[in-house]
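Retro notes, structure queue

What went well: the backlog is down to a handful. What didn't: a couple of records were mislabeled last round, so from now on we paste the full input next to the output in the thread. Example, using (Fe-S)-binding protein from Geomonas limicola:
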Amino acid sequence: MVLVDYSKCTGCRTCETACSASNHPVPVGGKELPGLGNPYYANIRLHNFNPDVDVANVCAMCADTPCVRACRVEPDGETGRRALYRDEATHTIRNDSARCIGCRSCAWACASQRTGTISPNPATGKPERMCTLCGGDPQCVKKCPFSALSYVEVRNNRKFYGQGPEKIAAQLARNWYGTADFGGLK
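Corresponding output:
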């Protein structure tokens, strides 16, 4: 998984650009080159809060996979996989777009039980924003100018593990500023 050290993260959004460029390559002259790096397409997302707290949010690669369990598609007879599944080789969460019905159950489960990283496509309802780990070489980790990101083994006892950006921001604001009040929201 990608682990965020919030004491080092400055909210520069380099992680989003690197992720998007790596995961959305463009064909140029018969070759695939890194994409433009539009943060909208990133699988790691930066959330900004006031007082000034920036929270990078990425899939926690949960061992109990609430998103996969919420998938309403019946398991495939051969593979045993639902439309949303954990890839055995990379341990990332993947979606079989041909089988996905766009019900948004996975996104709801992720938002209500974990980090809220899965985002349904507005047009199709199919899940997006699941971290690919860039095939084992996460570009967000490589490109972070402040070494705030690291590629580590999943352990659910890590601080902030499996928490959404609002909960993390509230804890950081309490520690840094003595308040968890965000513009009237707690």
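Agreed that this is the format going forward. Reviewer comment attached to the example: The chain has a mean pLDDT of 93.
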